Each structure stands twice: as structure tokens, then as C-alpha cells.
Amino acid sequence: MNFRSPRILPWLTVVTLTAGFALVFFFAPNDADQGFIQKIFYLHVPLAICALVGFMVAAVQAIIHLRGGDSKWDVRSYVSIHISIILGVAVLITGAIWARASWGKWFVWDEPTLVSFLIVFLLYCTYYPLRYAIEDRERQARYASVFAVTAGAFVPLNFIAVRLAETLVHPRVFATSDSGLPPKMWITFLVCLAGMGLLWETLVRFELAAKSSRARLGRLRRALEGDDVGVAGSRIAPLAHGATETS
User: Fold this and answer.
1) Which of 15, 34, 222, 224 supports an S-S bond with 38, CB 3.0-4.6 Å?
2) What pLDDT, in 10s, does the model give residues 35-79?
3) What end-to-end distance do the CA atoms of the chain give, in Å?
4) Per-residue CA distances from 134 to 37, 67, 147, 160, 220 (Å)
5) Whole-angstrom Cα distance, residue 19 to residue 162?
């Protein structure tokens, strides 16, 4: 069975996430200090991990693009950053909810975990203005890849900050040999993390498929209309692999 199949992957994602959230509510115990609200940890932390890993995946894809010049890797890097930013928004929202319930404030500026993630998130938000400002496709892709590689180097600093800082809310999941979590909480966390990783992969594949379909539809429309000149693609997003444009 090919779990990377477009048909299998979404179902596997739904099953894994459903199992993970079932474990959250019916298997994992309440936290001794924070009670039920701590269960948002199983959503907030996997989202953050997948977003940060997604940024690093985009950096690797950008390196491949810079080395070989294949436009498909620029597209994949763009989509990886796009999906990771969407997950990043969810991280900030769930973090704010957790902070409000625990501290009575939506955001606490002396919490290094939240602030470090916010800095990384805002850094990647500048990816879009950089891309939109460049009209030439080749320069746009090249500069965007350089940005992805450079920004990717800052992402591990977020993880280092979590390990070195005295966090107020976030459990230090990887701080000790037993991960700092009871077995039931650890199992639940791993299932939720796997589900969130599958969700990231599913969303990336759907967006890549959508870009490819739009590119094919555009070529077919121009062929039916007898347009030999072609139409330039959007400057906002890169063309899907195999799409062509003329200036």
C-alpha cells in the first residue's frame, strides 16, 4: 500500500488525527497543575513542530533549486513555506488561548518560547513581499530561494530557546531521557504529532496538485483559443512545474 498516494494520504491523515484527539480526551490524564486546559498542548506543540520543520524542509528544497535550477523545487519551497505559515497562525492562536487560560493574558512577552516563535513567524511573513516585488521569474525564484535558505538557518534557534529557557507553560518535551511526560501523555503526543505531520504533507500535496491543474487548464484554454502568444503567470506565486510563460 502506497501511503503517499493522493487517495490514501488524506484518509490516513483523518484517521491519525481522529485517533490522536480521541486519546487527548479519553486517554491522556489531566495535568496536575493546569488541569483540562493543558490538553491544548497536544494541538499547539505538534502544530509548532510541523511549522518549524516545514520551514527547514523549504530551505532544503531551496538549496536544491539553487544548485540545479529546476523550477519545481522553487514551487515546492514556496508551498512548504505557505503551508507552514498557515500552521504558524494556528500556533499563535492556540498559544494565545493557552496563555489567556493560564495567565489571564493573550500574550506574555517574557515567555521566550512564544516570542521566539513569533519572531520566526514574522520573518517568514516577509517572504511574500520579497517575492511580489520582483517581476522577473528567474530572479524572483532565485532571490526567494536565497531567503528560504537564510531564514531556515534561524529556525533551529527556536528549538534551542525552548531547551535553554525556563518556560512557564510549555513542557520541556525533549529535555530528559523519558521526555518529561508520563507514558500516556507521551503516546498521545506522538500520535498527535504524526497526525499533524500527515496533515502538513496532505496540504502541501493538495496545493501542488492545484497549481499543476491550474497550469494545465491555462495551457488548454490558450490552445482552444488559438493563443500562440501565451499569458504571463501570476507574480504572486511560482508557476507549477512544467508550466510555461512568455514575456
Assistant:
1) 34
2) 677 788 888 889 988 999 999 999 999 999 888 877 788 889 989
3) 44
4) 45, 21, 13, 34, 27
5) 28
Cell of 156: 533551529
pLDDT of residue 81: 92
Per-residue pLDDT tens for 160-173? Answer: 766 665 554 455 55
Query: Three cell numbers at 21?
Result: 484527539
Give the class (CATH, top level) of 8-225.
mainly alpha
- Taking the C-alpha atoms of residue 218 and residue 199, their distance in angstroms, rounded to an integer, is 28
The upper half-sphere exposure of residue 113, i.e. CA atoms within 13 Å in the direction of its Cβ, equals 23
Low-confidence ranges of the chain (pLDDT < 70): 1-6, 31-35, 110, 158-159, 161-180, 215, 226-247
CA distances from 118 to 31, 51, 131 (A): 26, 12, 21
Task: Name, in order, each residue with C-beta under 8 angstroms of 212's C-beta and a sequence gap of 6 or more.
Answer: 240, 241, 242, 243
Full-model pTM: 0.78
Count CB neighbours of 232 within 10 A: 12
Q: What are phi and psi of 35, to 5 degrees?
A: 75, -145
